[in-house]
# Entry
Amino acid sequence: MVLSTPQSAWPDDPAPLAVGTAPVPAYGRASLADLLPTLVAGQGVAGYERLMAELTPADRNCVFLIDGLGWQQIKDHPDEAPYLTSLLASSRGATGQPITVGFPATTATSLASVGTGLAPGLHGLPGYMVRDPASGRLMNQLRWKPYTDPRCWQPYPTVFQRAHEAGVHTAQVSSPIFEHTPLTEIALSGGTFHGRLSAEERMDLAAEQLGAADRSLVYTYYSEVDGKGHRFGIDSDAWRGQLMYVDRLVQRLAEQLPPRSALYVTADHGMIDIPFDEESRIDFDEDWELRAGVALLGGEGRARHVYAVPGAQSDVLAVWREVLGDRFWVASREEAVAAGWFGPRVDERVTGRIGDVVAAACADVAITASVNEPNESAMVGMHGSMTATEQLVPLLEVRP
# Structure
């Protein structure tokens, strides 16, 4: 089932959990991958289409991506985020609607979708941890461990690179720690990287770079909303403090926009708090039934890639459906690809990175791995799946 509008396909209690009931992200119409192609098409960069026709072209475009700030989190916290709340009606070209991030709803996948303008099935980062078919080992695509050649892993040019080649002034303004990472290289490179530790300095420099040319494309990023959510949960004072802070950052940037510009505030995923009880956190490392026939467990708690021992794929699929089928959409690789979970098309080089079985959480539940993933298993806030809380993010718009 492909979404006709991003919000309409998420029932409060989706059932039955057949593969076809999973709300597929709005690829090609209202997903993160459609944003930069739409913006640069409006700036006259050849080879791109205005996939989100509701966005009015601007000569100067700035994208501010706030890690972990979903649509629902803004709506639920008007007191902590008065400025962001005031912009909700501007979202997605004044339709007042959110956009979808893509599956899985996780940072590495989403940043690659933003920067390349491609869905996960093409750019090839279909999860937090996936199997490298060449080595047979799990690869963490956020931390890029174990290392593999970035350009072999993701060979497509970024939108920033192509815009820069077309004469658009292109800049990324972010923390210096991200400048030379493989993820930045394959997802966000092109033009000039400007590293600043202070978030306030980033806002000021982003506005400066936006006005540095007649046509400009600027990207800036803030991570700590996500960081506090993982550690303390989105029902914590620490998280609310970050929301208040980022609300002021957005306003600071908005008040400095040069003429003929547009600021778009978006996110890479939302977040949900998972209770610390046995019903809500299913420990794979302690569950013999789920472990049977599994060679590698990839993905993350709410979006798992399961790699079976050769010959055990159908048995693993059957068991995972039987054990988890009322709380997860559980699909074979072929079913997930055919249903469009990773986009309309999956490159051959990407197919083997996708699990033999893919499990996406529907309920407030996660599959943890206390022994092999102790840090991830201890997180309060999680994300990854296709629920509205994780998938829907804002596309707030400000013009001077």
Remarks:
- The longest strand covers residues 60-66.
- The mean pLDDT is 95.
- The radius of gyration is 20 Å.
- The chain is about 30% helix and 20% strand.
